[in-house]
Known about the structure:
Layout (H helix, E strand, L loop, with lengths): L7 E3 L3 E6 L2 E6 L1 H7 L2 E5 L6 E2 L7 E4 L12 E6 L1 H6 L3 H4 L8 E5 L11 H13 L1
Antiparallel strand pairs: 1-2, 2-3, 3-8, 4-6, 5-7, 7-8
Amino acid sequence: MQIPEELLYHPEHTWARIEGDTAVVGITDHAQRQLGEIVYVEVPKPGRVLGFGEVFAYIESSKSVPDPFSPVAGEVVEVNETSLEDEPEVVNEDPYGGGWMIKVRVEAGFDTANLLDPGAYRAHLEKLEQE
Length: 131
């Protein structure tokens, strides 16, 4: 399972790559594996303001309809509309690359302390597997 070292993780299996004042956001490899084949993804339009932990997308898959929670707070400034509308399966194929979902201008003063680094996320997954 992929857990890129340059990302931060929400315990509910979303990720954020911080690039200056913007975060690229998507679901983790673990999440896409749990979902099975993703058949539809709907993301918010630019301009929507998200709170930390707020549901930010609607995903349909062969196994379930999950709620992906935003790992950051701020304003949606860009969406991966073309890839997600035309090829939602890209989330399964490349969750950390072409399968990104939204870009968020991170709220001033947002503290990433509520996010997990790669080691902590790995430990979180191990704990979940033992339950």
